[in-house]
Amino acid sequence: MDFIDPHLHMVSRTTDDYETLARMGCVAISEPAFWAGFDRGSADGFRDYFEQLTAVEPKRAAQFGIQHHCWLCINAKEAENVSLSREVIAMIPEFLDRPGVLGIGEIGLNKNTKNEATVFLEHLDLAIEHDQLILIHTPHLEDKYQGTRMILDMLCDDSRINPDRVLVDHVEEHTIGEVLDRGFWAGMTLYPVTKCTPDRAADMIERFGGERLLANSAGDWGVSKPTAVPDLIYQMRRRGCDESLIRRVVHDNPSEFFAKSGKFAAPVR
């Protein structure tokens, strides 16, 4: 089955991962801007990173027949530095017209601090000003529930935000319901330590159905598995889930959401 991974940090993966993904049926990848494994010290570091996301990675992916798209921001882990964040936000419009850029993300909260919230709101202003889709990072582990509620409240308090143009990622059993109830799209991250397993994701799909629900691997520098979406496909087939439901979650939903950017069309094979 063809699938799309809506959240995969390929700058941290080897070229072999592209080949493996292609063999497994991956036709497109969406790569949000994120942490580099260390805190960058200047806006110039982000400029080089955005060049890598928008110019280098699409060529690397194309060698294996995979579409590569991306999102731009300064991530929540580095948003504690408000002055640097503002320099980066001011630079982002230079890259927004590039063909593979889907929107602003992954923005959100890490430790739910005041500075993180300030930078999050300024990213929202940027996205609204330039009519961009928004991809949200929700915090890990013990900070997730509070952080998700804070994020949803900030989004819903802004009348300019259209929930149908926002994907809230890393949902788990205790946050998915409110995300969907408020009209947002929800992303389940199949991550071996701090997110959820394919089995838990399948439970959530069976409980909530397939509407506005996506699945991703969030493969990055740490312990992660870029082929986690095929693991979910396998788990759902073992349970006897209908093929149309599986395809909706792993292909059709990301294709529908990304198409709202005006820059995405799922490959036809």
From TrEMBL:
InterPro entries for this protein: Metal_Hydrolase, TatD-like, UCP005295
This protein's record includes keyword DNA-binding: no
Record keywords, A-Z: Hydrolase, Metal-binding
Keyword Metal-binding set for record: yes
Pfam families assigned: TatD_DNase
Superkingdom of this protein's organism: Bacteria
Family: Belongs to the metallo-dependent hydrolases superfamily.
Protein name, UniProt field: TatD related DNase
Native source species: Aporhodopirellula rubra
Taxonomic lineage from the root: Bacteria, Pseudomonadati, Planctomycetota, Planctomycetia, Pirellulales
